[in-house]
Amino acid sequence: MLQIDHISKSFPAGRGQRTMVLDDIVLNVDEGQSVGLVGESGSGKSTIIRCALGLAQPDSGRVSYSGIDVHRASRFDTLRFRRDVQLVFQDPYASLNPRMTVEELVGEGLLVHKLETTAAGRRARVVEMLRMVGLGEEALARYPRSFSGGQRQRIAIARAVVIRPKLLICDEPVSALDVSVQAQVINLLQDMQAQLGLGILFVAHDLAVVRHLCTTVAVLERGRIVEHGSREQVFDAPQHPYTKALLEAVPIPDPAIGRARRTERQLAT
Amino acid sequence: MTLVLPTASPRRKANFTAYELTVFGVVAALFLLALIGPMIAPADIYTSNMLETLFPPSAEHWLGTDDQGRDIFWRLIAGSQLSLFATVLVVILYSIIGMIVATLATVGPRWVDELLMRVTDIGLSLPGLVVSLGIATVLGPSLQSGIIALALTGWPMTARILRTTMRQTMEQPFVEGARILGVSRTRLMLKHVLPNSLDVLIVKWAGDISFTMLILAGLSFIGVGAQPPSPEWGAMISGARGNMSIAWWAVAAPGAAIVINAVAFALLADILQVRRDPSLRA
Amino acid sequence: MGVDTILTDGIIPAPVRRRPEALLQVEQLSIDIATRDANVRLVDNVSFGIGRGERVALVGESGSGKSVTAQALMRLNSRVKLSGRVNFDGKDLLSLSPSQMAAMRGQRMGMVFQDPMSSLDPLMTIGDQVAETLRIRGISKRNARQRALDVLDELKVERAAERLDSFPHEFSGGMRQRVVLAMALVGEPDLLIADEPTTALDVRVQERVLDLLDEISRRRSLAVLLITHDMGIVAGFADRVMVMYSGRIVEENEATLLFAEPQHPYTRGLLEAVPRADVTVDRLRSIPGAPPVPAARPSGCTFHPRCDRAMAICSSVEPGEAITPSGARVRCHLYGAG
Fold first, then answer.
1. What is the SS3 assignment for C48?
2. Is residue C234 very low, low, confident or very high in pLDDT (cuts 50, 70, 90)?
3. Which partner for C258 in A138, B52, B194, C253 could form a disulfide, CB atoms 3.0-4.6 Å apart?
4. Residue B25 belongs to a domain
5. Structural domains in chain B (count)
């Protein structure tokens, strides 16, 4: 469905030099599939997202969505692409317009894509959507500032999903949330995927969350995909040293494992 | 947590201080006066009464009379509508021009932005008072000319500040989100960018009213704005300056009225500024 | 050197069973802040101790009061009102004068924060910044510089001698955090308070910083209070864990026991709500709702609106402290004590 086909991108780094940000990235997301993209800060995660959404132009390669070349699409195709591919941001405090009510926020996609032309029709769809993400009708007239971080992320998901996209790109959607709230949002994304057959591209630095949500995983190291395979392959039998190093560094909430690993490392040096 | 998150709190309560309430009260009173002034003023303030010229302040004429024998106190009251409303009109007009320029510069292609900002730079570098004097003279001396002249010269600062703010707003994730949702450019500007950029102007408006009131009175005083026998305050000063040595009150009273208004709005601007950015609080 | 330390403790260091001699004793510490409208209690009646050389973790979410507690121990936040007792090696910290407290901070207690950049002066060289506390104590420039170099070496900053004269912006995030650690450790304190020291770092860098901290704390017998929201990093590091929720410590136990047998429903919920990188589960058990803000704290047990085992008593009566058979100090009505 979404095909990221050999894209590369570099940025000027002064003195005529260029830094390679993305190097020959190949990544596909099929209908209903959940793909995880793992990378540390500076690995090029956000550049991939921007290219995939057509917000940034790769130097070479192409991004296509169901046959549409995202960067060279006609107005009509672009509108279809915008309806089918949505994004959930990391920071639910900055990703919602503070001057719009929840009804306006969630209903905007319906209005823009003319999916519901009457205000009453939109309201009904918005209420239905809010129920799906676990919020009530009383949320309609309220503004984002009166909600907690977890609730805002639910609103953001409702806003993205109400127009029934085929692909949801998630950019670290739980890393800004409190630990006890993260599971709610992770479960919600899982439900959405199961109920709506949504494809998910889940971009995160947190390997544990990716393992939990995604059946296919790609590991990004400094602009290059170094490992790409099923969840079981990548997590249980990693091949690339970088993947191994990452997995060994992830903290595991079990004191015996944590201490054993530390002792091993200290003996090794 | 990676981010320091503001906690969801119920709507912030206003909790104004006595000082702030006083300034709000004075500004409200000035507006009220401007609204009802001409209705409550006696009719004879527009007609001469040569028997009572240049009377000093007394119980009958609280602020004395002018060279036509008209009561200065009531002329000030009646004139407040002209002075304040003309000022507000000027600020509204040039704010609209500024908003249009800033919006076009923000959405338009790069060359439009460049062009508009260079024009704005030129506007900013010209001495506003001198240019408006020129425009008003060409249009013929009248209050309308003064208003048009000031509206045409006042917008560049608004345009510049607003464009900077709109550019910053454009960088916000929610604006990017709206684009990903497929929102049209017009809707993006009107619904997402502009409403989240206007805060900066609300503060500026109060200060603008203060400043414009002085300039408008200045134009009338020089003689290219409102003309005698209009009770516009600048025109009143202009008409009375010939007799300043024998009737100082005829000049001082409208001067004081201008100062009171200008100061009230300047203080309001200051309060709004601090409210918007509490770190400025002393 | 690191190896020796470990070998004396056995290959896998056994969790510390004996109660080490108390270094810090906090008794009924409450922290209040006066807002325009009301007095808000940020931390409510918290008591705990830290032994010499002991590594204790204070785990909590936003609004739990964990960072405010850390700042209070160092008396860094002058806007809050402290009550209770904080006894550090025989001295009551809350009754010290500001200058006595400043000396304490430089010599006996060190602190590192989440964002290393905010603790570093961008216009001062690394060497000068690390040596600063020593210079304030009147140690000669040359000696201070030598000791700064030693600490940076101890923290495995490569080519430390050459880099003494570089500036913070020339360092990576992980290196900056080491410099900040060096600043806190150069005065050879007895207690290091580390407030989310690795949260801003990538996992591999985080691991290295924690390894260093682990090694130094063993070698120097340095007590560490690690403040974090991440149960994962706690597991491999701390001897003892305290879980804080909405201004109160709801559970405290030896790390091994706390993870094996979490007692408080919140602790259990936290452990089950976090996905793990080493196992696949179908669904996470989530805790409903969100942590309360201090100004709107629920009555009774502050966790009761989110608790799946809440009883009638929970919404009205604040649970007292009970000791369970596993040795946990827990505040929950499930465990008797009213």
1. strand
2. very high
3. C253
4. no
5. 1
Q: Which residue has the tokens 């305050």?
A: B233
Residues whose CB is less than 8 angstroms from the CB of residue C199 and which lie 6 or more positions away in sequence, other chains included: B1, B2, C114, C228, C229, C230
Average pLDDT, integer, range A148-174: 95
- What confidence tens digit (pLDDT) does each residue in C151-169 have? 999 999 989 999 999 999 9
Pick the CATH number of A2-237 from 1.10.530.10, 3.40.50.300, 3.30.70.20, 3.30.1440.10: 3.40.50.300
**Across the interface, which of C202, C274, C280 has its CB nearest the CB of A179?**
C274
Cβ <8 Å between C290 and A149 = yes
Smallest Cβ–Cβ distance between A176 and the set B2, B174, B195 belongs to: B2
**CB < 8 Å to B11, chain A:** 146
Q: What phi and psi values does residue A37 have, to the nearest 5 degrees?
A: -120, 115
- Chain C touched by A244 (CB under 8 Å): no
Q: B148 in contact with A at a CB cutoff of 8 Å?
A: no
Q: How confident is the model at residue C10 (pLDDT cuts 50, 70, 90)?
A: very low
In chain B, what residues touch C61 (CB-CB under 8 Å)?
Answer: 1
- Give this complex's ipTM: 0.89
C14: tokens are: 């056994």
B14-72 confidence digits (pLDDT tens): 578 889 899 999 999 999 988 888 888 887 777 777 777 778 888 788 788 887 878 88
- Domain spans of chain A, in order of start: 2-237, 238-269
**Does any domain span residue B216?**
yes
Given an 8 Å threshold on Cβ–Cβ distance, is B191 in contact with A109?
A: no
Close Cβ partners of B258 (under 8 Å, ≥ 6 residues apart): B83, B213, B214, B217, B233, B234
Closest partner residue to A113 (CB to CB) among B1, B6, B182 is B182
Mean per-residue pLDDT, B121-139: 88
Which candidate in C274, C281, C293 is best for mutational testing of the A interface (most A CBs within 10 A)?
Answer: C274
CA distance B282 to chain C (A): 16
pLDDT at site B273? 81
CATH number, domain with residue B153: 1.10.3720.10
Beta bridge partners of C226: C57, C194
Lowest model confidence (mean pLDDT) among A161-165, A264-268, C23-27, C53-57: A264-268
Alpha carbon of C198: minimum distance to chain A alpha carbons (Å): 12
Q: Is B22 contained in some domain? A: no
Subunit partners of chain B (3 or more CB pairs within 8 A) = A, C
List residues bridging with C220 in a β-sheet.
none
B43's tokens: 């009719």
Show residues of chain A in contact with C257, CB under 8 Å: none
- Is B141 contained in some domain? yes
Q: Is the CB of residue A139 less than 8 Å from the CB of residue A102? A: yes
The per-residue pLDDT for range C268-282, each reduced to its tens digit, is 999 999 899 988 888
Strand order across the beta sheet in which A68-69 lies = A18-29, A2-12, A60-65, A68-69
Place of tokens 């709500």: C273
Q: Residues of C numbered 264-293 whose beta carbons fall under 8 angstroms of chain B's beta carbons: which are they?
A: 293
